[in-house]
């Protein structure tokens, strides 16, 4: 059996895999090696380098392990036609992403950007306008593994958490749950709106100008899911017209942002270059999910972790 890794991992991780699975021919190419592609039964990828053409060439392919949560750049229809198993690493992002979200919120609430600015300018000033997180209300779009962890941390700070998903079904660490249809009714009460939604047909363009009209004029909007949640011009207009107080953006419609993008010049926007999930523990956690599933795969077990419904895209 040939397993192709299309991204680099540390030598110690390569060695651990070879020692644990001595009968498997691992190919740590660090790219989509076309010479190995035709042999590979399993491909481990970040999900951005596989097209329909590569899937056609991979005659022996049976399983694609995606070391990411997002699948929007993958040829899901072709994979479904071939009946290829697709799994991802959903859940491993919850700690770094929740910490990133909380860090940005506390930074804004406690005026850290202004403090840093005063320091750079050599200015001693206490005119900060700081506020408290305690007693605020947060809506979390997508209260899955990541959203629930964000909710847990926010609740520890005394925040009332409202989870919002397609069904409105109860999720952990949410004081209240609503469906997408009910979102508009709760936006006027929210001090913070956080999205960690994936990109699916249901979530593309989910937020419109009407939603921003109903937000508080000092609300913090945070997008840590996918950039196609809202048309960027809609968001720019809402910020220009001061319909909301601030936006923290880790994802964008097109990445990377060009150097002349207006977000860079807007005082009420924080641009984060899609790094909220980055951590020294990312690859080790990904490999834990992979090795767990690989053992099941080798034993012929079908109840693998994080199996993707290719019709739904998650």
UniProtKB/TrEMBL annotation:
<comment type="similarity">
    <text>Belongs to the D-isomer specific 2-hydroxyacid dehydrogenase family.</text>
</comment>
<keyword id="KW-0560">Oxidoreductase</keyword>
<dbReference type="Pfam" id="PF02826">
    <property type="entry name" value="2-Hacid_dh_C"/>
</dbReference>
<dbReference type="InterPro" id="IPR006140">
    <property type="entry name" value="D-isomer_DH_NAD-bd"/>
</dbReference>
<dbReference type="InterPro" id="IPR006139">
    <property type="entry name" value="D-isomer_2_OHA_DH_cat_dom"/>
</dbReference>
<dbReference type="InterPro" id="IPR036291">
    <property type="entry name" value="NAD(P)-bd_dom_sf"/>
</dbReference>
<feature type="domain" description="D-isomer specific 2-hydroxyacid dehydrogenase catalytic">
    <location>
        <begin position="7"/>
        <end position="302"/>
    </location>
</feature>
<dbReference type="Pfam" id="PF00389">
    <property type="entry name" value="2-Hacid_dh"/>
</dbReference>
<dbReference type="InterPro" id="IPR029753">
    <property type="entry name" value="D-isomer_DH_CS"/>
</dbReference>
<feature type="domain" description="D-isomer specific 2-hydroxyacid dehydrogenase NAD-binding">
    <location>
        <begin position="102"/>
        <end position="276"/>
    </location>
</feature>
<protein>
    <submittedName>
        <fullName>D-2-hydroxyacid dehydrogenase</fullName>
    </submittedName>
</protein>
<keyword id="KW-0520">NAD</keyword>
């Amino acid at each position: 059996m040939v397993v192709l890794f299309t991204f680099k991992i540390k030598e110690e991780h390569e060695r651990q895999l070879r020692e644990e699975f001595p009968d498997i021919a691992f190919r740590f190419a660090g790219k989509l090696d076309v010479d190995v592609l035709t042999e590979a039964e399993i491909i481990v990828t970040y999900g951005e380098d596989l097209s329909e053409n590569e899937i056609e060439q991979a005659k022996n392919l049976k399983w694609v392990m995606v070391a990411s949560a997002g699948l929007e750049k993958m040829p899901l229809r072709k994979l479904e036609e071939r009946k290829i198993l697709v799994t991802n690493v959903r859940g491993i992002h919850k700690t770094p992403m929740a910490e990133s979200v909380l860090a940005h919120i506390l930074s804004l609430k406690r005026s850290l950007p202004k403090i840093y600015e005063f320091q750079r300018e050599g200015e001693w000033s206490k005119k900060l306008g700081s506020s408290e997180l305690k007693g605020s209300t947060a809506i979390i779009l997508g209260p899955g593994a990541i959203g629930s962890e964000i909710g847990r941390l926010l609740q520890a700070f005394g925040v009332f958490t409202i989870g919002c998903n397609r069904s409105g079904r109860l999720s952990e660490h949410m004081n209240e749950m609503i469906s997408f249809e009910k979102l508009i009714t709760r936006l006027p009460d929210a001090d913070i709106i956080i999205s960690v939604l994936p990109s699916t047909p249901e979530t593309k363009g989910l937020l419109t100008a009407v939603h921003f009209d109903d937000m508080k004029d000092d609300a913090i909007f945070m997008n840590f899911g996918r950039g196609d949640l809202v048309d960027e011009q809609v968001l720019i207009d809402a910020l220009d017209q001061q319909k909301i107080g601030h936006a923290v953006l880790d994802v964008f419609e097109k990445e990377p942002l060009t150097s002349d993008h207006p977000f860079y010049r807007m005082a009420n926007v924080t641009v984060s270059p899609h790094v909220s999930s980055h951590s020294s523990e990312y690859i080790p956690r990904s490999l834990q999910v992979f090795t767990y599933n690989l053992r099941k795969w080798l034993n012929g077990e079908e109840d693998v972790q994080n199996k993707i419904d290719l019709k739904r895209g998650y």
